[in-house]
Amino acid sequence: MLEQLLIFTRGGLILWSSCRGLGNALKGSPIDALIRSCLLEERSAETSFAHDAYTLKWAFHNELGLVFVAVYQRILHLLYVDDLLAAVRREFAEIYDPKRTSYDDFDETFRQLQKEAEARAEEMKKSKQAGRAPAVPGKKQGAGGAAQRDAKQKGNGAGGGGSGKDDGDGDGDSGKGRWLANGNGNGQEKGARERSHAPPGSVVVKGKENGGPQAGAFDVNKLQKLRSKGGKKSDNTKPASKGGEPKKIVKKNRVWDDSPSESRLDFTDPVDERGEGIVEAVAADQGESMMDKEEDLSSESEAEEEDEEVEGAKPGAKKKGWFTSMFQSIAGNAIIEKSDLQPALKALKDRLMTKNVAEEIAEKLCESVAASLEGKKLGSFTRISSTVQTAMEEALLRILTPKRSIDILREVHAAKEHGKPYVIVFVGVNGVGKSTNLAKVAYWLLQHNISVMLAACDTFRSGAVEQLRTHARRLQIPIFEKGYEKDPAVVAREAIQEASRNKSDVVLVDTAGRMQDNEPLMRALSKLINLNSPDLVLFVGEALVGNDAVDQLSKFNQKLADLSTVPNARLIDGILLTKFDTIDDKVGAALSMVYISGAPVMFVGCGQSYTDLKKLNVKSIVKTLLK
Amino acid sequence: MSMCMDQWISQIEQWFHQQPVEQIYVAVAVLALTVVLFVLFSLLKTSKSNTIVLAGLNGSGKTILFYQLRDGSPHQGTVTSMEPNDGTFVLHSELGKKGKIKPVHLVDVPGHSRLKPKLDEFLPNAAGLIFVVDALDFLPNCRPAAEYLYDILTKSSVVKRRIPVLILCNKTDKVTAHSKEFIRKQLEKEIDKLRTSRNAISTADISDEFMLGVPGEPFTLEQCRNKVTVAEASGLTGEVSQVEQFIREHVKP
């Protein structure tokens, strides 16, 4: 049974709902969950969404800015939902008027549509089944079914498919037959219920099982009447969509005077050059961490270079398409169709992939953008490619904008007030730079007068503890270590206890690198996280990774969820992107990782010294991706 | 080709000379007048904006308020918005009044954190901002709400143009809703903490260009350069008189 069918605008106003009496009686507001965690995350290219005990399916009407959502119990596999959504979309678009807000008269139409869709699904089931049974009756019945469908759509009155249905029931093999009978039972029940609602004059589909002559005789006249009514009303329907004007890139003036700050260029460090022998030397005075620096200068010049490049590279292409597109845009703002979008999307996908975005994600993003544009009216004086580009830019900006607060210092202060240390666990695959960036984060925190303690929980790789000890000595911060061959979860717990004893504000937990497929190690990590419930689980990933980013993050998340013993497991909260200085403009890994995990990029590691830690500049990433 | 052009030009010149001088003067005058009027009109339009922006976290009741102000009814309820709602209309409660009333341009910006950048599009020509807070479910949302408010109060477009902000405690029809004094205190406390942590972080990515309040003193909303007030309302039952008052204060009828 369909639980609810809801029609609302993209602005969020519910226009019509199939069960108004009960209101939103659905548990846990699945529709809000759908919008928040699916439609707004550019995942609308997927076909269904599961939340608690419900499955949700949806359809868009982009021209009118409407969303149709159907909710049903997850255990039921309703075949007719897609069909019904399409039908409702078609019918509702006819009577929709942006000024109107209540559509009580749509109830009747919906009831008819639902019946039609249910009956059609039933037929489909039967014809499939009959295909397996002896061939001749199957054919006959299939024809009957088709005839019936035609009859219904044309509104010519009762079709003769009722008898065919009965045959199908008889011939079916036992397993499927039972299910079918079940379905029929439902249908009948529904029919009966509906009849009690329906006005006395209308004919109700009850004849399905009896195979009476009026089987399939819907109240077609009524439907027609409704349609004509809808037609009248739809006269004053106005297109609600506005032409999205592409944003123009404003060219900034180059600032010549400031030279880049000293410490950024100065990567050599006297302490480093003296070698490992003199590790005692204090490295706590390397200047400000780059987390705290303005980077306006660099981004500005970058932006300018970009603009220049675009201008330099494009004029030929622009001139060529100019006349044709001009003609098209004057000739009328056509409705965008999927076929129109394909070439532009293909080009966009290729461009994203050259920027090292994982293929799977580029594909999904393009589909989602297509879903959001299909059926929209093209604004006058715009080209499809620029419309697609704008839509993609918006989508990327939306994805990369952090969902949770990335103000770690604020959270540290909050934890301090509660009198307990703030615990950050660094996880990731081998050799991505967990320990190095952990030291950078420690350095950054130290600069804000936060006392930091390191916990060496990499008890697996030889030399890991020594590496961390070296960092600790250079930064002059305490380190908690218990040597090798210990359970990392226990070491971490003891470290946190130690930290709360000596009043450290932050504990940075270093873990062993592990491949996402390594079950025993992932189990150990899950144990570590669930035992200590850290405040932040930071996934360290390198920006060099391509298609594997998807696999790494999804497997890490999945394993953390599957292998945990507690019901609501901790997942990855944030991402630290390392080796960002090595990739030039191939910044796609950032997008892949954020898209797949939904977690924001909290830090970016961009060099070898302690100061080389930055925040992600979302706007420049988007610009680079679409360059 | 050039011959043809020359002919045309000479023909036009001839026709021009044939016209009486007065007519040309009149034409020029009419042209000048329209241009001046157009410029004046556009100037007037930009100087007195009538845009009021509704902002706030997810589920605080912005969309309901929007429809309550427009139509005077919450219709059949709302779901999470995916796009801003905006409309220019005369407030529902003023429909019965006589005389010409200036309509209000009301914008409801979605609260989902992914859509927050949309706010920047509307702020540059806003006459006022209503920050909606859920008074019923306030404590769990206190910190994110304070962060959002902090972001708004430190935005250069808000500070420079001194856009008045109304902190609206919504859902006060419920018995367990918090009082506006309590909410005000909590928000001030949170913003005070944010002040220290935010200023420690770089200004590279976060665009707060202005320091809030007086350094060394606990933060209060009076310290803001723009006017910040607190009010109560209930979107569901239609108790929105304080909101209408705020709107009419800043968009003169």
Automatic annotation (TrEMBL), chain A:
Biased composition (Acidic residues): 293-310
Chief localisation class: endoplasmic reticulum
Organism, as annotated: Ananas comosus (Pineapple)
Domain SRP54-type proteins GTP-binding: 600-613
Region (Disordered): 117-270, 283-316
Gene Ontology process terms (BP): intracellular protein transport; SRP-dependent cotranslational protein targeting to membrane
Signal sequence coordinates: none
Family: Belongs to the GTP-binding SRP family.
Protein name, as recorded: Signal recognition particle receptor subunit alpha homolog
PROSITE patterns referenced in this protein's UniProt entry, alphabetically: SRP54
Residue stretches of biased makeup (Basic and acidic residues): 117-126, 244-270
Entries under PANTHER family matching the protein: SIGNAL RECOGNITION PARTICLE RECEPTOR SUBUNIT ALPHA
Subcellular location: Endoplasmic reticulum membrane
Single GO MF annotation: GTPase activity
GO cellular component, one term: signal recognition particle receptor complex
Alphabetized Pfam families for the sequence: SRP-alpha_N, SRP54, SRP54_N
Protein topology in the membrane: Peripheral membrane protein
Keyword set, alphabetical order: Endoplasmic reticulum, GTP-binding, Membrane, Nucleotide-binding, Receptor
Automatic annotation (TrEMBL), chain B:
GO molecular function, one term: GTP binding
Protein family: Belongs to the SRP receptor beta subunit family.
InterPro entries (UniProt xref): P-loop_NTPase, SRP_receptor_beta_su
This protein's UniProt keywords: Endoplasmic reticulum, GTP-binding, Membrane, Nucleotide-binding, Receptor, Transmembrane, Transmembrane helix
Predominant place of localization: endoplasmic reticulum
Domain of life: Eukaryota
PROSITE patterns: ARF
One annotated Gene Ontology cellular component of this protein: signal recognition particle receptor complex
Pfam families cross-referenced by the UniProt entry: SRPRB
Protein encoded by which gene: LOC109710519
Compartment annotation: Endoplasmic reticulum membrane
Membrane topology term: Single-pass membrane protein
Keyword Transmembrane on entry: yes
Transmembrane parts of this sequence: 24-44
Annotated source species: Ananas comosus
Keyword Nucleotide-binding attached: yes
A single BP term in Gene Ontology: protein targeting to ER
Protein name stated in the entry: Signal recognition particle receptor subunit beta
